[in-house]
Amino acid sequence: MPAEQVLRAQEGSNVSLAERAYRIRRYALLMGEVQGQGYIAQALGIADVLAVSYFHAMTYRPEDPAWEGRDRFLLSIGHYAIALYAALIEAGILPEDELPSYGGDDSRLPMSGMAAYTPGMEITGGSLGHGLGIAVGMALGLKRKSSEAFVYNLFSDGELNEGSTWEAAMSAASHGLDNLIGIVDVNGMQADGPSRGVLDFEPLAPKFEAFGWFVQRVDGNDIAAVAAAFDAARAYAGPRPRLVICDTRMAKGVPFLEARERNHFLRVEADEWRQALDVLDEGRSR
Fold first, then answer.
1. 228/225 Cα distance (integer angstroms)
2. Which residue, 81, 98, 163, 196, has fewest beta-carbon neighbours within 10 Å?
3. Which residues on adjacent β-strands are paired with residue 245?
């Protein structure tokens, strides 16, 4: 990876992406324990993608989250905020000592992400289905300023239900936004039930290809595969937006939570947060 793509406090660090993902998961569990709730299954599932985004792919300066030259990471899925906060803490953009304030009064870490509150939170995610449209506008603006920055937009399979997502997809291709990298978290679950049972979006890759995107599909919990896909997305030479479809496992890394009936909001009992941390730590030591 070119040296200019690595601008962060951990520059030169030999910490592995797997270790970054482990820490992101751990921070998310600690925040969940504070409030006794949170979209923890989604946070555990998307941790590998966030580790690759912040510690392999993106250009940014932790000490200056508003630096104009940064790559932008847009969290369309506002209720995934607990996951992004964990990544921002690991990246040094947010201080770890704010973790216990998660979801509290006057906290910079509200339970649903809000750009006005949190450094590094580029947009207020939700209502769902708006993120890709915002990303298109942002990428178009950066292109018109001749910026070399990329816009990464993480959105969910549930947002594929929204017509605004497909309008944005068509617009991105029409404008030749080769500085836009979409990331779809396909975890198979949304508020109303299994995603494909609510509205079947498959075959997904051919749909985006028909809209004019360069598309890859990977196991979103395979760090090497995600990193290779992100590299290919950035390196692709055509004037097309890029999409990485990431199939993820909800609650990945904590087997007893993975094994539960898959629900949009996973119930975790008070004594299970510590148990989950112990299991995660044990998995890291193997």
1. 5
2. 163
3. 184, 217
